[in-house]
Structure formats: structure tokens, C-alpha cells
Structure prediction request, 947 residues.
Amino acid sequence: MAKPLTHLQRLEAESIHIMREVAAEADNPVMLYSVGKDSAVMLHLAKKAFYPSPPPFPLMHVDTTWKFQAMYELRNRAAEDAGMDLIVHQNPEAKAQGINPFDHGPLHTDMWKTQGLKQALDKHGFDAAFGGARRDEEKSRAKERIFSFRTATHGWDPKDQRPELWNLYNTRKAKGESIRVFPISNWTELDIWQYIQLEGIEMVPLYFAEKRPVVERDGLLIMVDDDRFPLREGETPEMRSVRFRTLGCYPLTGAVESEASDLSGVIQEMLLTTTSERQGRAIDRDAGDASMEKKKQEGYF
Amino acid sequence: MADAHDTTDAPVYETDALIAKDIDAYLETHQHKTMLRFITCGSVDDGKSTLIGRLLYDSKMIFEDHLEALESDSRRVGTQGQEIDFALLVDGLAAEREQGITIDVAYRFFTTQKRKFIVADTPGHEQYTRNMVTGASTADLAVILVDARKGVLVQTRRHSYLAHLVGIRNVVLAVNKMDLVDYDQATFDAIVADYREFAKTIGIEDLTAIPISGFKGDNVTEPSGNTPWYAGPSLMEHLETVKLSSDSDLVKPFRMPVQWVNRPNLDFRGFSGLISAGTVRPGDPVRIVPSGKTTNIARIVTLDGNLDEAQVGQSVTLTLADEVDCSRGSVIAAAEAPPETADQFEATIVWMADDAMLPGRSYWMKIGTQQVSASVQEPKYTVDVNSMDHMAAKTLNLNEIGVAELATERPIAFVPYRDEQDRVSPALGGFVLIDKMTNRTVAAGMLHFALRRSQNVHWQALDITREARADLKNQAPKVLWFTGLSGSGKSTIANLVEKRLHRMNRHSFLLDGDNVRHGLNRDLGFTDADRIENVRRVGEVARLMTDAGLIVITAFISPFRAERDMVRAMMEEGEFMEVFIDTPLSVAEKRDVKGLYAKARAGTLKNFTGIDSPYEAPENPEIRIDTTALSPEEAADLIVERLLGW
Prediction:
């Protein structure tokens, strides 16, 4: 007699089921790819879901031009390995206006990411977009459906979500509307790390501790990843053994001091740690408590 | 709180030592964890959010920054004075934090050494039955919370009924706030006895009752010293050890609804899906439903190599030994025990939309990976979820639960949601209904059984085919479906079209709205439900006439898109032509040939299309006639030209 499935086997099967439903029912799906660990797991699951076919949709990176160099390197290789087309979108307006995280604060995220994503989805006419968000990340995510509807202007109404029963997903929508689909909704941070370890999924090296040039600014340890970083008076980058718990735009992503240079070490630190994952991101701090919910209503992923 | 069981500062699951000492050993244990999904339900103020917050806190799933925020929030907006308000951890959306209530289903996660848990936190107040059913649909277990000071309430019964309805096997009665009744055993016993008596009447046989305090932590993760009279497990211990209901799915016959046909090249044709029951091995004989073809499993294909066996809950790709007809919506099933097929059913339906159900209206039904048009009859009865009484009803409103007959446009594969052995099969027994216009999920349902008549009424094969009848008349059968406001000119133009066809020796028949209502449909009025039935009958008659080889012209307001689409779906591909007689309301009202608009405006004629009943204009009609630009004769010429393909 077969043994009961483990929690990771059940999560994997659920995510694969979700992806196949989208492939079967959406007209023009796309997988959003941020190069982070959640994206890496999502991409790996997509390979499993459709094997021996390649995933029947492209990968899309909504780029801000301010990601870590190491992320760009992995991105191109990962798409090729999966046999998928890679679409990179950079908001031309943000580019023209030279929007950057140093001078423009919250506008940086809004222009490059929120507006950039909307532009990219509209430009290619994607009607379903996979995202790697998890419900354990943040309170408003805990209430979001796996199939989350967006109006033609990409708005999200938390009060008007479709009930999701059993594993039946209603993918029907009017012209112009789209769906954000979160196949790893039910995974936790620990699940993600364990799965990466079990499956041997390649990660951006930034997740592992190494001596890197950092400065301390506004309570965050920021890595000086390229020469666009304007050093303030009295700031000198120093080499410290650090790693990153989440990856985003390098000037907005806080590092943690760490000696964990392999997966076991990272998981160990993660389990013993006392600050939650999004804490390293400046983005949630913008508007206090309801920050993410507000961003999502505006169309942020 | 003076004893050692105040767990506020001492999380029970202290695995830090092992994590620090031997992370690989820790991970090894955690790889073999199972998963339990449960829901918590209770009335407003029964302490659900507090309990969940406590479980998260005690299993150390709360990080320091969350905790800091929690402490400051507790002082600012908390309801527990200076103490930590665990509910604030759980209530997510800004809107509801202000109102102090949980408004939607939220999912929470925590892990112990034995299991990973997913908790669906569902709201307690009346108007959100649908959220509770949603949360329960994926749960293995339900924790029903009762306030020890209040005992079993109407809402307790409702939640228990709903949990049982969706087939949750494991029920925990958590008598909460025991600290507020001085941990009194007699109070606990009385509540449990009261609940057991009620539970039996709705079919809940097994239940575990635990005295707890979510606020103080008693019996939540550890046995409490405050309840020495209670010898059972703590809530957490019970959750960690309770038998998983998915175990029983292993012994059922193999079934896998096909999600996606995997065809990377001409040499490979696989069928991808999530196994919904049983186990499968290469060589197993299988039957494809509904086609009925049998073959054998060739391989179980995954990225990690071919498998020797796969089981319920796994997502796999199967290849078959023979080329058989199989696609999305098909079910690959153990050959000796395939699911039945039928097109008429009795079902329990939970209505989840603000707009009431329209008996007879065509909705999309999604069941497994099948999607079909389906319509629901007037309910046989609705269930009062507070008293469990059956009540007569004409429709189903938001949050109402009823039993009704349901018909699908073609036979579907199904398994009764609950079988004779009381086993539950959500995969091919649970369904949702989707409104064809708004695309909203309007209902969830559970199939009871197929109606006998659908199995006993067979199609009689006729020797003279519809093609033969049409050939004799030397024409292609068609339906010209005129739709438009009252007074738009439908009947006038339809009449001219038929005269032209007659002159051209075409065999036609004009079904006129007013005329049909004098005979075939004289029992129908003008409510939405009657309008739908009116159109359905005319559609069926038109279909019979096309079988006879006729060109059918119909002139009905037919105000709803859903019904026009339903009729379109009844006809052979290409035989249905929607003719939109497009006359602005102001123009039709000015003509008012029958004086009806005047009556409607005066309020003496109710449900009049365009006035107090909606008209949904066609989006892509085959022919659109703008009566402000064309005369009736010009319109008739145009329609005949299009019909005959000139």
C-alpha cells in the first residue's frame, strides 16, 4: 500500500494542477519571473507540470534596470534551460525620465514595477499571469485567491473575489480583464527552501553568504553592486559577510550579516531568525500598515 | 494565571536546539511531515482569530517584528487591555481591521514537527455562508468554537451543518473561554452533551470535545493544569495525530480527470491530470469516460522519470497503450469501476451570488475538468440552516441552500458527492455554477444521484435523417432568430421575410411571440423565470423544425443573452442566425403600436422590457438591422440575401 503523501508532495501536486488549468483554459498566459527563490521554484514546477513538453507560455521579467548583476546572469540561463521564450520589459517612460531608487523614492517602484507590469501585460495581451506570491508573506496576501481577477485597468477588489471551492477554478473573464494566478499560494518560506534543497534548484548566489561591499543606510545594509550607487558623505563600502533573504532592486534590498554559505546554513538561519521576510524590503514601509493592500489595488503584483 | 501553564512566554515547540545542533537531522524529519487542512468556525466573538493567533504564536510562527507590531497594535486598537490581542495577527485587510470583524476567508500556515497545517479562517456572521462553504471545501477537519459562557448557539448549528454538508469527517468541538467560567467541568460537560445530541441529528457521529482558552492558552498546545478533570489531548496534539481523510481515497477505484493533453511532438501523446482517487500502475486496464473505450496504462511519465505507481493526490502524465479518443474533460478510470455518465441529477446547491438563481437559465457548470451548460429547476426545498427545516421555495437567494434537479446539455462523468458508505468524492461530485454574462461563480453544488429518467429515456434512432428531409426540400435548414425591443419591428420584418421566402419556394415557418403565448406557452407569464422558459420552449420547437428541414423564423423580444446563447447551442453549427432588430428605446416607445409602453410607463404593466426589465443587446449578431436607416422592405431584402448567402 502506498504511503500518505508528504506536505511537499501535496503542495507540488496542487501547484502543478493549477498551472495546467491555466494552460488549458487561458488564451495567452505568461509566467512572471523575478529571478528570486519563489520564481525559481515556480519555474521548476512549470517544467514538471508540462514535461516532456516545455511550459506552453513565455517567461517575462519586468525589469527595473536596478536588479543585482547576479540576477541578470541567472535569468537568461534559466529561461534557456526551461526551453521558454524570455520577454524582458523595461518601462520606457521610467527609462526616459531616469527614474531611480535614490532620487525618486516610492515613484521608483510605481513606475518601473507597477506601471511597467501593466504596460507589459497590455502590450502582449496576456490574459493570465503567474506570480510567485505566497499567502504567508503578508496579511493581505493571506486573503487573496489563487486565481485573482483584475479589471481591464488592472485593479483588484478584495471585497469582490470569486469563491474558490475544492480545486475548481473559474477562469472565465470578460475581454480586457485578466487573471493573476498564484500557484505557490500555499507554500511557506520553509517549504520553498526545503523544496529547493530536495530538488537541487539553482539559486542566485546572493542568497548565500559571501564577503560583499556594503554600506549601512537608514538601518539597512545595502550592497554597492555597481558604480551607479551614489555614496553619501562619510560612507565607504566595507566588505562584510552578508546574504539576502529576498531579492529586488539592489539599492532597496537590505542584506543580513551571515556566515551561511550553503542551503542547510541558510535554512538554519531562517528557522532561528526573528525577523520576517519582507522586513528587508523598503517597499512595505512606505505607507504604514495597509501598504501592500493599497499597492495591490493599484495594480502591483 | 499563577501556574506553569501560562504559555505566553514559552512556546511549546522548542526545536531551536535541534535546528542549531543538527540542521540536516531537523530537515530530514520535516521532509516526512504530512499536511492537514482545517477550518475554524464560530460565531462573532467566539474567539476564532484569537485561537489561530495563539496557534501561530505557540508554534513559533510569529517573527519578532510581527510581535513588536502586535504589541503596539494591541495597546492601540486591541480589545484585551494591556494583554496581547492575538486576533490582530490574523485579521488582515485594512477594512476589516477597522470594523473589528473578519470579512473573508483567510489562509494561515504553521508547522510542527509532525505536520504542516493550513488553516482557513472563516467568518462567523450570517451573511457569509458562502465563505464558510468555500473554506470547508478543502478542509480535512473542522474546529467548531463555542463560547463556554454561551453554549451551543444557532450559529454553532449552522457551522456544524455546513461542515458536515461539504463532507468534513473530523469535527472538533472546542469549548473556548474556559477561563471565564473558572474551568468548570459541569459547564463543559453540559455543552458537550447538548452539542452531541444536536450533532447526531445532522449525521455527525464522531467528534472530539476539548476545553480550551485561546486567550490564556489552556489545552491549545499543551495539556492545562487548570482542567485536571480533562484527560484528552490538547487541540494541537489532536491536530497532529488525527487520521487524514485522504487515506480512504487510496482504496477507491482509480480515477483521473484529464486536464491537458501533452503533445510535444508526433511521437508522444500523454494525458496530464491530478489523480482524484485510487492508485495506478503501468499495465492497468482503464476505461475512458465518457467515450467508453478501454485500453491499458503504458507509462506514468514525470520529469523525475517514469513511475512504477502513482496515487491519489499526485499530478502525473499518463500514456496509453492504444490511440483512443481522450481529451480535456475525459476521465481515465479503472476499467472495472468507471464513473457513471448522466445528464440529469438531483443536487444540493449553495447559492453564492447577490442575484437570485433563475430556474431554467443556462449557467456554465464546472465539474472536475468538464465544463458544460446546465440549468437548474425550481428547488424542491431549501434548508433553513438554523433549524434544519425544509421549506418550499421558487428560487435560491444569496447564502441559501436548496435541493434541486439539474440538467446538463450533454452527459457528464460523475461520482455521487457522498456514496452509500458515506465516503465523499469532491473531485467528480462537487461543482460550481458560473453566470454566463458576469462570469461570476454563483453557486457551489454537490451531486446526489442521476435521475432515473435520464438513464431510461434513450434516443430512438430514426432512419430518415435530418439531412434527408432537408435534401427533399432542396434547402439548408436555418433559424433566423429575431430579437429586439417591443415595437422594434420584429414581427413586421419577419413577416416580410417569410413572404419573400415563400415566393422563392422555400419551406419556412414563422414562430411569433404573441401567437405562441396563445397556445404552447399560455401557462407562462413575464417574470424572468417565465421569459427564460418561454425562450427555451421556442428553441426546442425551432430545433424540431430544423430537423424537419425548415427555415424557421422566430420573432420574440428574447431579452437575455444567456437564453439566446442557449438556443444557439441547441442548434447545429452554423444553423443559428441572430437577427438584431436595432431600434432605440425612444423610437420604439414613440411608435408604441400596441399601447404597451404607455401602460408600462403608467405602472399598470409590470416587467416590461426596456422600462422595468432589462434588454441585453446582442454583442455579435449575424445580422444587425438599424430600423432608423432601413425601411422594413429593405431590411427583409437584406436578411434574405444574407440567409441565402448571396
Q: What stands out?
A: Residues 283-289 of chain A have pLDDT under 50 and may be disordered. The longest strand of chain A covers residues 210-217. The longest helix of chain A spans residues 7-25.
